[in-house]
Design brief:
single chain; 326 residues; alpha/beta; Rossmann fold; 9 helices; 9 strands
Length: 326
């Protein structure tokens, strides 16, 4: 990336405008759209580190600063929204550290840092905040993402399914914004060839429920039926399984960077200690846009999000217009 430096117009009193643009792009370009800082590490950390290590250009777009999060560091407890309301600013630094751990150097906030505010959980009064991402104008927010697509020209985009994976309003809105941006970018020829949604196979959830049934730190505590979980995808509907087990330590380091959000004694780390790369390193996706590439196993799961794509798609392709949204 190249910093074009300060640009000053004579006779104007505004501060210099600093512009950063991507001047040289690798053949593989991956764009991820997440709702809050820490979502990227928990949900797609190994995938991001996997592709970054391979030399792909990985761009992360985070839609809010996560202002409504809890704080699990006692010394920072007054940063919460109901007190100093400074948590969002603090989480910018946490996200920067997490991206560094994942090897990701291209991170942006949608519309700029603080443009959209964390909406909080569904049904809370915070959903109605005038800057809440849940209240964002869809076309305006998508327009910010299209600007990034024009610059980066990603072949692959990753975001959430229509339910935002588990129903959080900002996750749902991130899905809507990403998919609207794909539609707009398709008309300009800069849309990704493939769009994936994060997912968790039912077989993996079932195995987890069995494994931790007798554990004192059971993340599935109180769940009797797998159908009661707000997420879970039939194995036949999974399109890709990315094995980033060699990057599981990077994912764990990225999660630890989000110390205000993930307690040091979290069950996530306990599982990571017991199962290492198997738990931390494998992530799953459904395919929403584009053609599925070659795969393996009973359901033909891809092992590469770029499977079936040409080495370089070129700037004049309009793949979504041809493939259709489904």
């Amino acid at each position: 990336m190249a910093d074009l430096g300060g640009r000053v117009d004579v006779g104007r009193e505004e501060p210099p405008v600093r512009v950063t643009v991507v001047t040289m792009l690798p053949d593989r370009r991956l764009l991820l759209v997440h709702a809050h800082p820490d979502d990227e590490s928990i949900g797609t950390g190994s995938t991001m580190a996997h592709y970054a290590a391979q030399g792909a250009h990985v761009t992360l777009v985070t839609c809010t600063l996560g202002e409504e999060g809890e704080v699990h560091v006692p010394a920072l407890s007054q940063l919460v929204a109901a007190e100093a309301d400074q948590l969002g600013g603090y989480r910018i630094a946490e996200l920067a550290a997490a991206c560094a751990a994942l090897g990701v150097g291209d991170h942006r906030f949608l519309g700029g840092a603080g443009r959209y505010r964390d909406s909080g959980m569904m049904g809370l009064a915070t959903n109605e905040h005038p800057r809440a991402f849940w209240q964002a104008d869809l076309d305006e927010a998508a327009g910010h993402l299209v600007e990034i697509m024009r610059e980066v020209r990603p072949q692959v985009l990753v975001t959430y399914d229509p339910n935002g994976f588990y129903g959080h309003p900002d996750h749902i809105q991130a899905h809507r914004v990403a998919m609207r941006a794909v539609e707009v970018a398709a008309a300009e020829g800069c849309a990704p060839l493939k769009v994936y949604w994060t997912a968790m196979p039912l077989s993996v959830l079932e195995a987890g429920m069995t494994q931790f049934a007798e554990s004192s730190d059971n993340p599935f505590g109180g769940i009797e039926d797998i159908a009661d979980l707000p997420f879970g995808t039939p194995d036949a509907d999974i399109a890709a399984q990315i094995d980033g087990t060699d990057q599981h330590l990077a994912k764990e380091a990225a999660m630890r960077a989000h110390a205000t959000q993930i307690p040091a004694n979290s069950w996530l780390y306990a599982i990571a200690g017991n199962f290492g790369g198997e738990f931390m390193g494998v992530e799953y996706f459904t395919l929403a846009v584009g053609e599925k590439g070659p795969g393996a196993g009973p359901y033909g799961w891809e092992d590469d999000l770029f499977a079936g794509l040409p080495e370089e798609t070129g700037p004049d392709r309009s793949p979504v217009a041809a493939a259709g949204l489904r």
